[in-house]
Amino acid sequence: xxxxxxxxxxxxxxxxxxxxxxxxxxxxxxxxxxxxxxxxxxxxxxxxxxxxxxxxxxxxxxxxxxxxxxxxxxxxxxxxxxxxxxxxxxxxxxxxxxxxxxxxxxxxxxxxxxxxxxxxxxxxxxxxxxxxxxxxxxxxxxxxxxxxxxxxxxxxxxxxxxxxxxxxxxxxxxxxxxxxxxxxxxxxxxxxxxxxxxxxxxxxxxxxxxxxxxxxxxxxxxxxxxxxxxxxxxxxxxxxxxxxxxxxxxxxxxxxxxxxxxxxxxxxxxxxxxxxxxxxxxxxxxxxxxxxxxxxxxxxxxxxxxxxxxxxxxxxxxxxxxxxxxxxxxxxxxxxxxxxxxxxxxxxxxxxxxxxxxxxxxxxxxxxxxxxxxxxxxxxxxxxxxxxxxxxxxxxxxxxxxxxxxxxxxxxxxxxxxxxxxxxxxxxxxxxxxxxxxxxxxxxxxxxxxxxxxxxxxxxxxxxxxxxxxxxxxxxxxxxxxxxxxxxxxxxxxxxxxxxxxxxxxxxxxxxxxxxxxxxxxxxxxxxxxxxxxxxxxxxxxxxxxxxxxxxxxxxxxxxxxxxxxxxxxxxxxxxxxxxxxxxxxxxxxxxxxxxxxxxxxxxxxxxxxxxxxxxxxxxxxxxxxxxxxxxxxxxxxxxxxxxxxxxxxxxxxxxxxxxxxxxxxxxxxxxxxxxxxxxxxxxxxxxxxxxxxxxxxxxxxxxxxxxxxxxxxxxxxxxxxxxxxxxxxxxxxxxxxxxxxxxxxxxxxxxxxxxxxxxxxxxxxxxxxxxxxxxxxxxxxxxxxxxxxxxxxxxxxxxxxxxxxxxxxxxxxxxxxxxxxxxxxxxxxxxxxxxxxxxxxxxxxxxxxxxxxxxxxxxxxxxxxxxxxxxxxxxxxxxxxxxxxxxxxxxxxxxxxxxxxxxxxxxxxxxxxxxxxxxxxxxxxxxxxxxxxxxxxxxxxxxxxxxxxxxxxxxxxxxxxxxxxxxxxxxxxxxxxxxxxxxxxxxxxxxxxxxxxxxxxxxxxxxxxxxxxxxxxxxxxxxxxxxxxxxxxxxxxxxxxxxxxxxxxxxxxxxxxxxxxxxxxxxxxxxxxxxxxxxxxxxxxxxxxxxxxxxxxxxxxxxxxxxxxxxxxxxxxxxxxxxxxxxxxxxxxxxxxxxxxxxxxxxxxxxxxxxxxxxxxxxxxxxxxxxxxxxxxxxxxxxxxxxxxxxxxxxxxxxxxxxxxxxxxxxxxxxxxxxxxxxxxxxxxxxxxxxxxxxxxxxxxxxxxxxxxxxxxxxxxxxxxxxxxxxxxxxxxxxxxxxxxxxxxxxxxxxxxxxxxxxxxxxxxxxxxxxxxxxxxxxxxxxxxxxxxxxxxxxxxxxxxxxxxxxxxxxxxxxxxxxxxxxxxxxxxxxxxxxxxxxxxxxxxxxxxxxxxxxxxxxxxxxxxxxxxxxxxxxxxxxxxxxxxxxxxxxxxxxxxxxxxxxxxxxxxxxxxxxxxxxxxxxxxxxxxxxxxxxxxxxxxxxxxxxxxxxxxxxxxxxxxxxxxxxxxxxxxxxx
Length: 1521
Known about the structure:
The chain is 60% helix and 4% strand. It has 1521 residues and is mainly alpha-helical.
């Protein structure tokens, strides 16, 4: 080369000076020659001469303006071995510093030069003899020769319109290159929208052609001794604002530069938006130069400039945070559809696409002011841990609101970042504040996404060293500050994007003499390797750093091979059996996945076989760690994409634009803007090339990944299958499809089915599943939509059905309606069936979304819009609604009716879940009117064969279904006065009649199966009876009756079915004529059930009691009194016998019998409720209200009380409506008082029931219940209009109302009795609100001595009536303690020996006499201490009781008594003489009251002497008689 330079320069001297330069594109050297020093740029690329000719022309054009200094070009020369050199003058330069403002002025002069020349020319034309300038005036946009920005040639053809020039020759050109290399679908579709917006950005702006440098970033400017200098231009005539776009990127210029520039060329309206538009060109240019690291920035700008309501996918709404296939489908646009394939298969779903939902819940970032204040306060609050934690938590709460709409933060990200970076960069900021700042940055990045947020970090040259130094100072093992390291690694990733050789930074290091500094390249690599091994999230950021850094041209040239060697060595040596090894493998695999994703194929192809071999040897797919298996699949698919040439398969099926927005945009833009889709390679014959043998290995591993046990692995494998298949020849791709279809074998697990569905969806949406394959694919998808495999107590397959819905969703977008037309009815029916009948709500919603997508995209689904209005995404959320309501509406469309019925019969009535079987049979009942003939002639015969089959669940469902369909057919016939026998065949009728006998003969009523068969056949009996089947006098009736009688002793669910069937059976078959019973059956059944009420088996009692309650009126006629007597006796069973359930059901049956028999005041007690038996009925029910039996299950008596309350309500309303004179005042008073007591008690459920019954009786107007005490006062407490809003379950609402009954004398006793249990209870809320309500009442009567005395008498009466009844007495003593502690009897205290105190003391003594209940004794001690307030001799008696308790046999009581007495004496100083007070207190506090009784008794006796009370004496036990 030196000989060439000598010849071209005509110099004998050519000596290298040692000065070097250059960047990412070319190298540079300086030489001394005969005529001075020159600088030579060298590039060995084939197009180097074109690049240097353009640069030389650019330098000459700028030089000619005499506005800003550039190196003067000498010549461009071709190199003999290829490439070229550009020779120019050498200038000693340094970084721009002093002359920044002057550069701004001179750049403005450069941009104004052409305009000024034009003005001079216009003026000259008007001046005779004026000499014309040598520099031509340019009135178009372009350049006289081609130039290169980087090494990519620019099209500079002249155009008169700037918008057309920039759109076509800058943006369109770059996007065409992106399309050729990456095939990025998202960029392609965003470009469609953006083209329409570009002209709007120039509205009202006149653009004058200005000579531009073309690539003026901070790396292409400097200063020399006399001023600023610019170099490396790619000039053309364009809009002056274009120059400032890249000036603000990669380390922009200071404010002095911009101020000076805009002083000469002010900003025009819309400057900021246009600046983004111009930056887009440079980001696209960098994308094409340096890979997909710049993809996100490019797409972000395209989105910002496009319609903001359009998301980054296809101009349609998408979910913000989809989690799986069902979530993808739930919002109409799955994340998986974002983008097609880039050079290494970089799909949009892993790119920067941010799905933005149209239906925003939030309008904007409303907390910006609060966030600003919070960030500004960080320096003040960071030192206090509480304030720091509070501030962080508040910031988290605010940011989390935007998790689903993170785009709302976009316009605020920059100022938040700047505020936090200001704190971080401040040298005065302590480490704690710096870490807090990074924590806040992490929170923002987590919400907005690191890919978007990291692009805002400053990435100037000056940032590299500080960020790297700060990161090196961090401790990788500090678990408290991982956010700092994570964000620093992301920041370093951005600074790595500076587009020139990093060795230039090493040249400016301020190294100390004699000290060798490690190059920045090596330092960054060392940091990356370190953090790839850490166990926190910093590992993820380190892999991002690797992908950005190692793919740089200078780094990959020097370090790529070494780094890959290190990575593979790490993988080989690490073990996934240890935590440390797992973490190491994770980091290494992440880095490989990122490298092969973002790197260029030609750089990595040579290493791919070695990497694949290493992974094969490591057997990552067999690891027990799901994350490692997923990363292994990701790396393998990236390797596969590296082996295959980057291209879009020409054979793939293309439906055309699948976006309505794109179609509309194209039609609008027709003739105005370039076609939206850049031209691809012509669709000629497919290029033949050898497929590397490694690809088979890759595909095999991906197919294996489809069957992995973890969803994340299968999902990654499915995407890999889609990406790799897109680069295969048609024949090989079809083989892959065949292999995927092999997953749908019933020998395969549900995992394989799920993975296969995901793969088919990926292949379909990419156009790789050709229509010819649909005949194979659709049947397996229809099977997958109903895939359900029982496994133990649950089933597998919901994920398969969910993924199958995703496939249908994807097909709607992938295929033209004509391709899917043969399968429309099958797919539509299958999706409807899944949407309304699937057990899993996620699958139902997924099917609804898929159906909606097909209706919108295909437009061929029968009655699609009508069905969607009924079965939309939200309506299918309720299972009962789906089966019982939506299904009926959809069945109205004949295309769906029979498929729905067939599905219920074949898949649902034999379902493992009993709820589904039950709903399915009810759905069949509802669907019968749509096709009664099909049901009667086709479905019922199928069911009859199943009803006696071997499958238990099928048998159960079929019997229920037969019952429901038969009853539905009866209703259909009744509309036309036809019996059901006209609709059913004689064989079907005989089959229905014979079900019971067949099951009985096979002994299928026994065991576990019997628990299903009995209620099912009872339901059949009920429905056949209601359907008036002609079986009267048929022997089958006795068989049915026998089954019912036998089932009455079964579990509750069996009893309920038997009781319901008994009522229907009696009504239809035991009635000789209307209202007249078959006396034989009447006598037999009634006597049988009455006798069974005395059975020792509780279930038998329950069943027979309920059976009596269900008998029709004609069956209890003349037997009423006998039945009532037996039921009353069953209710009065002694507590020792237990049987709470039997008493409950007897009370329920008694009320039902009375209601069924009717009321007649003067009637016979054997036929109606009358004056002779009504009192006994009420007495029995009211006695049940006092049933408080408990056992190991708790308060089982509450069941009886609840049944009695319901019975009282039903009976009272019946009597009040028919014969109100039967209701005596005494009955009504006792009933209302008992209900008031229950409404004041502690169990929420029963309190609510009592309150509801109480108010229904009070507010009833049709009929009015007579003789309710204090009716007017009660109506003022419980107004009818507020009854519905009163929540009796809530203690805070119930007790303030019920406590007002204490003012009413009739209700005071019972209300206070109920409150006592609540106030002295254990539940905190119940105790709080009940005691508060009680004390509010006591406060209101403090000055009313009569009311207070009455309240006290009521208290004593309750205590007296419930002595030794621990259910009441223990909580009652607790309530007394609270009442006394709150000084509620202040009026009685001053009265000597007040009767209330004397009586209460006597009752307390009696209550604890010989008691061993610790809780009761403690409470009584507290009451004694509260009674000490009362004056007179009674005080001495109280002290005697306390002294006796100080020597109680239980040490815990002695200790508790001493403690209580000590507190009492501290509170009341008039109890004992002050002279002995200190001694008494000392003994009480210092004595060990838990020691032996002899020691304790001496101290107790001493206290008695000081207190002036007699010493208690020990009574000797009397000898045994």
